[in-house]
């Protein structure tokens, strides 16, 4: 195992060396940089064999200045190639984890690559793993990597889900204490009646939340049940938990006050939270903007706004306003019924909505272009 001296983000190193190169060039000649590179075998290797630019090669070299020979680096690169990685992917890995070039190829690197590839982390997924876990190859094979993989396999049941979870989180860097915490949280959620399917879905889609302390998660569950009236048998309890995990009670209360200012009763707010808990993690400004538009401009009622998740999850400027404004044109020309469901239309995919508009092009030539221009302008504004 190789020793980690310190970790400096590569983008910082790159910008630092770009600055020094620029300064140096302004005082002498850029040819001096080329001369320095040409006299350093390791820099030459990075540039000629892996396709690094000079400044990027220097940044990598700054992390491993003791490397004078290219022999070990070449062995490392060859092993990566044996496992199916191309030069671009290897260069990406070296950029993110320069010290990988110092590991013992057969003793340290290959056994770990074997575990990852058997799991299904190939090519782009392996690059993604290193991007999220730059120190991955410094972790113990038998003390951390294999135990973590085995834990996730037993928990999730198939390698495909394990790969998906690893790609979403820094699982390979978790100490055993974090794995014990996750196990405790799983037991807690089961006590609250959550099914294995829902718990596993949360683990795969949002694993960071499962790394919180059991005390925090239990306090959030109690808050949802006792203060907000979302019972443990609610099918949306898991969504409500995700929504409030990183929100304080005061922040949530501030949002509830916004609804009250717009005339919502506590009963209506309670019904909204039970059916649309996603609004619990929105900012005060977000809710104000939505309610101003829906209630003051469109005259929607609380009961109508409870009817669709799209009102609280879709972008107002990028999705809802452009479509609703176009529907207003169609209604004004009596081409569609007044009762046309806007909540359905805003949920259409972009291609499906354009297909809907094409039905009216004979009445309003260029209708699709009008919509596209409104959409483009709204994105510029936002």
UniProtKB/TrEMBL annotation:
GO biological process assignments: DNA-templated transcription termination
Record carries keyword Transcription regulation: yes
Pfam families referenced in this protein's UniProt entry, alphabetically: mTERF (PF02536)
Keywords in alphabetical order: Transcription, Transcription regulation, Transcription termination, Transit peptide
A GO molecular-function descriptor: nucleic acid binding
InterPro entries xrefs: MTERF, MTERF_sf
Family: Belongs to the mTERF family.
PANTHER family reported for this sequence: CGI-12 PROTEIN-RELATED (PTHR13068), TRANSCRIPTION REGULATOR MTERF FAMILY (PTHR13068:SF168)
UniProt name for this protein: Uncharacterized protein
Organism this protein belongs to: Lactuca virosa
């Amino acid at each position: 195992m190789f020793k980690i001296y310190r970790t400096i983000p590569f983008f910082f190193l790159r910008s630092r060396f770009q600055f020094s190169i620029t300064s140096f060039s302004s005082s002498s000649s850029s040819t001096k940089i080329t001369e320095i590179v040409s006299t350093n075998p390791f820099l030459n290797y990075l540039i000629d064999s892996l396709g690094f630019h000079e400044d990027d090669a220097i940044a990598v070299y700054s992390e491993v200045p003791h490397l004078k020979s290219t022999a070990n680096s070449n062995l490392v690169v060859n092993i990566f190639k044996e496992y199916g990685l191309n030069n671009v992917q290897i260069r990406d890995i070296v950029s993110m984890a320069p010290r990988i070039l110092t590991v013992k190829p057969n003793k340290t690197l290959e056994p770990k690559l074997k575990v990852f590839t058997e799991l299904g982390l190939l090519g782009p997924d392996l690059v993604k793993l290193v991007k999220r876990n730059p120190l991955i190859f410094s972790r113990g094979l038998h003390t951390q990597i294999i135990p973590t993989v085995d834990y996730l396999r037993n928990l999730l049941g198939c390698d495909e889900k394990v790969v998906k979870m690893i790609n979403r989180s820094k699982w390979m860097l978790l100490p055993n204490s974090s794995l014990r915490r996750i196990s405790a949280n799983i037991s807690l959620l089961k006590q609250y009646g959550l099914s294995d399917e829902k718990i596993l879905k949360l683990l795969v889609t949002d694993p960071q939340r499962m790394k919180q302390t059991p005390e925090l998660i239990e306090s959030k569950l109690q808050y949802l049940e006792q203060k907000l009236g979302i019972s443990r048998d609610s099918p949306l309890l898991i969504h409500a938990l995700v929504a409030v995990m990183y929100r304080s009670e005061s922040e949530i209360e501030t949002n509830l006050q916004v609804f009250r200012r717009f005339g919502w009763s506590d009963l209506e707010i309670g019904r909204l939270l039970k059916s649309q808990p996603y609004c619990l993690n929105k900012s005060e400004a977000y809710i104000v903007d939505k309610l101003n538009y829906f209630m003051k401009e469109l005259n929607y009622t609380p009961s109508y706004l409870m009817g669709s998740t799209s009102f609280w999850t879709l972008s107002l400027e990028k999705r809802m306003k452009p479509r609703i404004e176009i529907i207003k044109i169609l209604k004004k020309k009596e081409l569609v019924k007044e009762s046309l469901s806007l909540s359905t239309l805003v949920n259409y995919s972009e291609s499906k909505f354009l297909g809907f508009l094409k039905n009216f092009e004979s009445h309003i030539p260029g209708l699709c272009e009008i919509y596209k221009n409104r959409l483009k302008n709204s994105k510029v504004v936002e």
